[in-house]
Specification:
single chain, about 400 residues, alpha/beta, three-stranded mixed β-sheet
């Protein structure tokens, strides 16, 4: 039997070199490498932009979400809303708009007033027209003359009108996505633009913390709402209902009937500080915990506004009887006079700003008269006096 002998090949086989380059090319083809590079660049770009949600950036410190979107907000979709049916209300509204402009608010400003008023200033004593022109030309307020709706209490004559439905006009401003209604008897300490960027909800209000825990009612000194013609009609229909008129309910009672259980509740320690809080001894309702210490300076520092609600004191634009002030003003607690200082400072600041507002209006109009200009809204816009700021000429 013949045995098969092994014979080597004529040439030795070439060694196979497995390099890293060949591996990378096997796992990352040329087209895939371009895709991965593009994705990496996109991720770097997203990390560097400020509008990326913080949930995608766990390595970053958490931030206030609205502040991340301020650069991309169309502020013309939002507005502060005021309504005025008297000279005192109109003056307070102008002061509020001045504060919003001074504090850097970016949202629009809307003022509703009776259509019987006009912006033709007849004389230096035509106070309403002066204030309307000032609001429009100095603070860029959008003036909206309307037939102010009124209701009548049962048993009253037609001349005795109950002006309780003016708040509901805010729901009629459907040219905006959101409207913030503020009472005019407040002092704004910080602009409130962040409220417009809260999650969508028909209405956001605060609890009337002074009624807690006995009553869980809403307070109407600040209302964040989404305008709606249908909702406006519902509110107006409710205000004319016989049972509501017989009960003597106000706009606050109607709002509680509609939204007490559905409104988004805003923190009252930020948006609901009352002036009387610095006069009271018990702060448990405001703090929400009787064990927490009361610090008037911190409460004032954390608040965005202060509402003048201080019975039996009248509003700050009304002069007090001297005897009432001596009996009821805020007092020192031993050697601690911080409550008294903050309380008195709030009223002094309001009155000083009101005097400045009145003086500016008078000096402005006197300057127009000195220039020989007819005192009218159009003239006031065309020829501002020298040295006055905030009025732009008509183009």
């Amino acid at each position: 039997m013949l045995s098969t002998r092994y014979s080597p090949p004529p040439y030795p086989p070439k060694p196979i070199h497995r390099t890293t380059t060949s591996n990378s090319r096997a796992f990352f083809p040329r087209r895939s490498r371009y895709i991965y590079a593009a994705l990496a660049l996109l991720l770097i770009y997203l990390c560097m932009t400020s509008h990326l949600p913080t949930s995608l950036l766990p390595h970053r410190a958490p931030k206030h979400l609205p502040s991340l979107r301020h650069k991309n907000v169309d502020w013309t979709r939002y507005a502060y809303f005021q309504h005025a049916a008297s000279t005192a209300q109109l003056c307070n509204s102008v002061m509020l708009f001045e504060a919003l402009v001074r504090l850097g608010s970016k949202a629009d400003r809307v003022l509703v007033y009776p259509e019987t008023w006009d912006t033709q200033i007849a004389s230096l004593t035509d106070r309403d027209s002066q204030l309307l022109v000032k609001a429009r030309d100095w603070y860029h307020v959008k003036l909206v003359p309307l037939d102010i709706p009124v209701t009548y209490d049962k048993g009253q004559e037609e001349g005795a009108k109950n002006m309780t439905c003016t708040k509901f006009l805010a729901w009629k401003q459907t040219q905006y996505e959101r409207v913030l209604h503020l009472n005019a008897d407040i002092t704004v300490l910080k602009h409130l633009d962040e409220l417009f960027l809260l999650p969508s909800t028909p209405v956001a209000m605060m609890r009337a913390h002074w009624n807690l825990p006995a009553k869980r009612t809403l307070a109407s000194n600040l209302i964040l709402l989404q305008p709606s013609e249908e909702e406006y009609e519902r509110l107006m229909t409710a205000s004319r209902a016989e049972d509501i008129r017989q009960a003597g309910d106000t706009d606050v009672d109607i709002l509680n009937r509609f939204y007490a259980d559905s409104a988004m509740v805003l923190p009252h320690q930020t948006y609901g500080l009352l002036s009387r809080e610095f006069r009271t001894e018990d702060h448990a309702h405001y703090l929400g915990n009787p064990l927490l210490p009361w610090d008037p300076e911190r409460a004032f520092r954390d608040a965005s506004l202060v509402h003048f609600l201080d019975e039996p004191f009248p509003k700050p634009w009304i002069m007090w009887p001297h005897a009432l002030y001596g009996e009821m003003h805020a007092r020192c607690k031993g050697e601690d006079c911080r409550d008294k200082d903050v309380w008195a400072g709030l009223y002094d600041d309001f009155r000083k700003r009101r005097k400045v507002s009145q003086r500016e209006t008078v000096l402005l109009l006197e300057g127009y008269l000195a220039d020989g200009c007819r005192v009218s809204a159009r003239c006031c816009r065309r020829r501002p006096p020298s040295g006055r700021q905030g009025i732009r000429p008509v183009k």
